[in-house]
Every structure is written in structure tokens, then in C-alpha cells.
Prior knowledge:
about 40% helix, binds 2-(butylsulfanyl)adenosine, CATH 2.40.50.140, D-amino Acid Aminotransferase, Chain A, domain 1, alpha+beta, Helix Hairpins
Amino acid sequence: MIKDQIETLRRELEQHNYNYYVLSAPTISDIEFDLKLKELQKLEDENPEFFDPHSPTQRVGSDITGAFKQVSHVYPMLSLGNTYSESEVQDFYDRVRRGLNEDFELVCELKYDGTSISLTYENGVLLRAVTRGDGDKGDDVTNNVKTIRSIPLRLHGNYPPSFEIRGEILMPWSVFDALNREREEQEEPLFANPRNAASGTLKLQNSKMVASRKLDGYFYHLLGDNLPSNTHTGNLDEARSWGFKISDAIKICKSIEDVFQFIHYWDVERKNLPVATDGIVLKVNSLAQQRSLGFTAKSPRWAISYKFQAESALTRLNSVSFQVGRTGAVTPVANLDPVLLSGTTVKRASLHNADIIEGLDLHIGDMVFVEKGGEIIPKITAVDKDARIMIGDKVQFIKKCPECGADLIRFEGEAAHYCPNENACPPQIKGKIEHFVSRKAMNIDGLGSETVNLLYQNDLLHNIADIYELKIPDLIRLERMGTKSAYNIQAGFEKSKEVPFERVVFSLGIRFVGETIAKKLAYAFKTIEALEKATLEELVSVDEIGERIAQSVVLYFKDPINIDTVTRLKSVGLQMSLSEEKLQSHGTALSGLSIVISGTFSRHSRDEYKTLIERNGGKNVGSVSSKTSFILAGENMGPEKLKKAESLGVKLVDENTFLDMIIAVVPSEDEVENS
Length: 675
Ligand code: IVH
């Protein structure tokens, strides 16, 4: 009975996952899905004898760490021969025609630019997921792959008892952009492109973190002894019917003209796809013909790739500067002769890190190729070595901080260099102060970066705690500072003493502790004393706090200078513990949900509802999409929103129902304003 109930729920949730992540056509709202998932989780917890590693509840990942097991591929994972011009494509076509000496079809597909994966299914369940590795053996990343919602854990329809399917794991552009924005805010090194981000994510030792990165998977190659069709496209059609995400951008071509047409169409249209592509793959459709053409040592003779040309420009490298950020991360930047690239003038390009500089074998004065290839920051892809007349100095990554002279360090497993001299390196000191006074932190108006710089140069400000010792005359003495502004700044200091504890934690500028993490820490430890004393184990046991963040927190509170800073901040009266009200009102009822507020309300204001959503772990978003969990709907909701909600099947929740769902301690006015 219970078993049936569990199985029905599992089947239902699998279908909804498929509708949402593969078909992009959900039939229930996220909140309904979540409720069902919670129900299943509860039944499974209560009845552990029915545990199933392929249950939809197993997609959330775990933070258990461990090195990956190496697994041999049953069929080696080969690469494809690359071509870069239409004449090379024509050559491939001619080679195939000569090799087969009979009619044939070519299949054109998009070449997805992610990281390849091989999945093994037995009796309809996902058994193993292995990376390409060296082609013969790769890493077993099954637990990480299980968190990818578009990958079926259990198949439907008429599938063979055992087979492998290969495809590409991708990070959609939207996820990539958001991830990099977040990393930029934390001054963590950015991912150069979605491919690196996807492969980096897949190799994370914490599948919970993988789950949060929202990867996707597209599949393009079925392998096994008993395949359902004797054509490649026939097999892909079957695989689609079992639940795999197979692209629709596939065309069977009977002539080379058809192939060129596909190439021309997608060279433009690919810019509108949600994921990165870098070319076209051409494959002979008939499996018998594939066998007859066979393989070379490295790649099949029956397939080839055509790479799209990234827009690139050639220019001169004049110098390399090294910038030190708030957290001490050192970024190398190439200064270039200005050059026009995809409609904008490029003068600077990121060199990312020491490995990239080394790999390029860069010398000052080199003519370099810059590309934008859909990525945010232009990058140098190659050096035109033939253009070297006189060879300049080799670009070396600096060993000492350009700002304070400290020896740079490099954390294990990280590509970036850091200046460790946190409390005495000028850009780090000034950066920390600017961060401290910024709007999302202590929100002290009037202290812009110029003023901070002047105060620093006048020896009045070395540390965030010094801020509260600044006196009106200190301020007035500064260039361009009026009496009124000085009094306003002073008032800002006073007002900042009301800023809630979670934002004080954020303001400290602990490396890797952004706004959200600061909130989690504040709610988990409740007082600065408890946070100071927290051990690594205690820290990692908090949801979303990984080893790296935990270590950074421990390190911060180990430093006597930081302890002194915190003590001084406490003594001037900053909030160093969670307010009584918040201690009681924090809930998780809405965790993971995206909620849109629309209309007018009678019991609380819109802003109060906004705070309540956040307090209970939810996210308040502006516009309705298929990702919206529900709409908190008041009177006179906008007709556009209503229409959109109806067409997407997003549920409306009225204010009374909403208040029943959460722990509703109404926030004070000040908290509403500050949240
Ligand atoms: S077929 C034996 N199809 O490109 C042929 N590969 O350079 C197996 N890739 O390792 C590959 N999109 O990671 C194939 N539609 C597609 C592809 C594709 C991307 C990647 C894949 C492979 C690499 C080959």
C-alpha cells in the first residue's frame, strides 16, 4: 500500500521533471511539484526499506566528498576530425562518397560546446555516468549527473535492456552569466566560458553544489549491441521517446548543398540558443555504412565537425597590468592597441591567470588575436608568432603584490594568485572600507571611493572600525567636503548602528561571504561570539556552506587584527546578534520558491510581504515565468500578469492562504526598508 503510494508519486514526479526540463512544458506549478516531492521524501524517510537510488528525491545531491572512481569505457570515447572551411567539408563529403560508392545520407547536428559524458542504462535505470577522461577511461561522476534534472534516472517506453548514450553536459548561458556575476561580486576568478564552468561543476566533490548550478544535458550518440534502429537518426528518435533531451536541430541531408544550408542557417541562429555551440557535426546516417567506413586511430571516418568562426581581430600587446581587488585576488589585464571587434573598440583583454599567460607564451609587443566568442570579456586566444620581428620581454606573472610588495600566494587547486596582506595592502584596505559602507552593507551615504581614498591618504582611516572614530572636523578638512555633507556622513554612522546583524556579517568582508551566505551564517549562529568560535565542522553543517567558505570564516577569526576590529565595532554599538524578533520568525517554508507579488493587499503592505517571503527562505521575483512557483495575488492584479499566469499554469495564492503557509511575524518598518 505505502509502496504503491511511493511508486505512484515517483512516477508522477518523473513525468513532471520530464515535462519541465526536457519538453519545457510543465503541467503543474513548482509549488505543487515541491509539495509532492516533500510528500515523497517524507514517505521514504518513514519507510527506509523502500529506498531507491533512482527516486526523484535523489536529485538533490549530497555534500559527501570523495575522489572519483576511474572507470574504463566499454567503447572508447573518440574525438572528431575538425574542419574550418566549406572546402574541407566538401573534401569530407567526397571522401565518404568514394569510400561508400553508393547513395548515403548525412546527418547535420549542432556541436554543443560543453563537456562530454557517457551514460550507461541497465533495465531502464541510470547505472553510471562517466566523463571522457583520456578517451579510454574517465571519472565516475554518477552522483553529480543525477542532480541534472533533464537527465532521466528511469526511462519509459521500449528501451533495450542495456545501452550507452553519449552527449554533452552544458551550463546554459543564463546560469553561466548569473554564476559569473556572483563570482565577480565575491571577487572570485570568473569562468572563461560555459564549457569550463560545466566541466568544473561536474568535477565538484559536492553534488549539492552541482545541483545548485543547474546544468543541462543534450544527447547525440547511442551505443550498444541491440540498438532499435539501423540509422543514427532512428536511434535518436527512439532515445527521445525514452525521455532523453535530443535536440530538434537535426537535419538529414541528401546533398552537400543541404549541408551548407544547415551551416549557414545555424551560424546565425545559434546566437539565440540557450546553450553554447561551436560548430556543426556531420555524421553518416546508416550504421551499416558507418561500420563500413570505420575509424582511424583517433576518430571515426564517418563523422566530422565543422567549427564556426569566432569573430577575432589582430592587435598589439603593449603591456600587462596586474590589478588587486578587495579580497586580494590579482587579475592580469592585457593593454592592447585599440581594435574594432564585433562592433566595439577593444583596448583591454582579460588574461585570467598565470596558466593562461604561460600557455600563450606571451611577449610584450606581440601581435595577438582577440576574440569575443559570445563571452563577456574579450580574451587573447593566440599569438601571431610569424609577426614577431623583435621579441619583447616574456610576460611573467608577478611574484609580489604590485600595491604592497607582499609575496603573492596561490591556494591549492585554484588558478588565481592572491595578495595575503589583507590588513596592510592599500587596495584591499580601501576596498574593504568601500564594501563596508556600501548600500547593501552598512549603507553609509556620502563616503564614496574618492572620500575613502582621501581619508586613507590623510591617515585617518586604515580599518573599518576607524570609521566610527572619524570626527566632523576630520571630515570638513577634506577637499571639497562641505559642512552639511560632513554632518550627513556623521548621521549615517549613527544610523548604521541599527543595521541588522546579518548585514553586519556581510559588511565585514570575509572572503567568499556574500549577502546570502552572511544571512545563512547569521541565522545559524545568531551571535558574533558564536560565529567567532564556530569550528570548521559546525560551519560546513550549515546548508550551502562548503569547506571553502568555512575555511575562510575560520581563517578570518583566527587573525587577531580581525578580532580587534570586531571588538571595536561591537563597542561602538553595531548589532552583533540576531534581533529577538528574527530569532523567532525565521522559517524555511518557502525555501527554493520564486514568488511574484501582484495587486493590492489589505493585511500587510507589499514591502512587508517582500520581507516575509525572504524571511521564510523564498525569493521575490519581478515577472511571471514558467519558473515562478506562485503568485501572491492581491486585489486588482494586472491583466497582463494574470494572462501570463494562466497560460503558464502558475498558481495564484491569496494573502490569507499565504500567511497560513509561513511563519508570519510582521517585520518592523525599519527592517522592511533595510531588506
Ligand atoms: S558525436 C565518435 N555529436 O565534440 C563521435 N559530438 O570532437 C562522437 N560534441 O567529444 C561524437 N556536439 O564532446 C558528437 N552533436 C554532437 C556533438 C559532439 C558536441 C563534442 C563531443 C565530442 C567532441 C568531438
